[in-house]
Structure formats: C-alpha cells, structure tokens
Amino acid sequence: MTPGSPLTALRAPALAGIRRLNALDTVRARIAMAVDLGLLQPGERLPPTGEIARALDVGEMTARRALVALCEEGMLERRRGRTGGTLVAPRPAGGRVREIAAYQAAAGDVHRLIDQRLLLECGTAHLAASNAARHQIGELEALVARMDQASDWAEFHTWDERFHMTVAAATGLPSAAEQYGLVLRELYRHYLPCPLSHLRESNCEHAELVTALADRDPLKAAEVARGHVEALRRTMFVGLAEHGRDA
Ligand SMILES: [Zn+2]
C-alpha cells in the first residue's frame, strides 16, 4: 500500500476516532456535521453560546472559539443587531471541516454505546416502574413539561439528560445509576444538534414512559425505553449510521 492511497488515509491517526479530537474540534465537527446533514438549516439561528456549551459538555470559551472558527470556515455567520447572533450561513460551505471524518470514524463506537445504553435503559425503566418514589415521578412530569417548552435543541438536551438520569436514580440502585450515567455521558459526546420538531416527538416517548412508571407497569416502561433508544440509530446519529454500514 503506497502512502497517500485511500486505505492509508483511512488508517491515518486523524481518523482514528473522536477521542483524538480536542474539545474545540469536536464541537466544530458536531456543528459542521449537523449543518452538512441538514439537521441545522441555512439561516437558522444557533442557541446562546452558554447553552451550546452546556449541551455539548464543553466550557463556554471553547464553544465560543468553535463558533468563531466555523464562521471563518464559512459554515456559520455572525449578524449584528436585533435579529443578530450566530446563524447557519445561507449557503454553508459543505464538508470543509476535516474533523468531520474523524467524527464519522467513531461510528462503530457510537453503535456499541447505543447497544449498551439500550440494555441499561430497558433495565432501569423496568426497575423504576417498581421502585420510583412519588416525588420522582412528579419530577419526571415536570421535566417533560420543560422539554415541551424548550426553545432550542441545546436547552432540550440539558433537560433530556436530567430526565434520563432521574429515571436511573428512580431504580433505587445508586451503583447501577452511576454505570448508566457513564454510558449516557459517553454517548452524549457524539450528540449532534437536532431539529426541535424531532426532539418534541421524542418527548412524547418520555411522557409515555412516565405514564408507565406511574401505572407501575414494568413491561410497558421497558418497551417504551427500548423504542426511545433504538430511535437514536435512525435519528440522532443519522449519517454516522450510514457510515457504519459502509465500514
Ligand atoms: Zn430522551
């Protein structure tokens, strides 16, 4: 195999996975990919930087620097004034961010994480249906209402994480909840910005899950949890899934 052949390129360290990217570059890759895949539309305004930072689990300074870099690359643009902020460029430069390739190379990792989450999610939902305290069910209902009112994907994502961690806590098994949290956070490192309309649909599943917990129906709870996680393969990681099939 000669240097510079496609196979050499595929095995290059830069493509070895998202773990090799620093925080700044993973944020750039995730936003650029969401734009490339049409999950963020041309002209769409991005949430406030602080919210993006929280949703993508990086510092605010890192998020700000990533947005500046994406503006320089022609993916985003800054607009001043009342309707200003950071927006997706009207004709975003496509596929220019090299780190997207590294992100896509992590597709196998993402599928393994979804498998692990699927198993844990079904188990936690099943147990939470038996063990959830009244106040925990109330908390989950409040989180569903917050997600219904969330004004953008970043805010939704923050409540979504809290929702799932609350279900895990409701099992009454702290060490299992801890294990679940590790998988969830690792998976969230690959989270892509997503249209709010899609997220609202997924919130219907959250509401169904809370009803199953309140009804003390473990089978129903596990079934809803299963559908919720399996949907990630088709939606949250769209594109990554495509790549995974090719690999
Ligand atoms: Zn969810």
What would your notes on this structure say?
GO terms for molecular function: DNA binding; DNA-binding transcription factor activity. This is Glc operon transcriptional activator. The protein is 66% helix and 3% strand. With 247 residues, it is mainly α. The protein folds into two domains: 6-101, Arc Repressor Mutant, subunit A, CATH 1.10.10.10; 107-246, Four Helix Bundle (Hemerythrin (Met), subunit A), CATH 1.20.120.530. It has a two-stranded antiparallel sheet with strand order 1-2. Helix 8 (153-169) runs antiparallel to helix 9. The radius of gyration is 19 Å and the shape is elongated. Zinc ion binds next to helix 8 and helix 10.
CATH architecture heading of the largest domain: Up-down Bundle
The value of Rg in angstroms is 19 Å
Helix content: 55-70%
Low-confidence stretches: 1-17, 243-247
**Domain tally:** 2
Question: What letter string, H or E per element, gives the SSE order?
Answer: HHHHEEHHHHHHHH
Structural class by secondary-structure content: mainly alpha
Give the number of DSSP strands: 2
- Tell me which oligomeric state these chains represent: single chain
CATH class of the largest domain: Mainly Alpha
InterPro entries: GntR_C (IPR011711), TF_FadR/GntR_C (IPR008920), Tscrpt_reg_HTH_GntR (IPR000524), WH-like_DNA-bd_sf (IPR036388), WH_DNA-bd_sf (IPR036390)
Protein name: Glc operon transcriptional activator
GO molecular function, one term: DNA binding
Pfam families: FCD, GntR
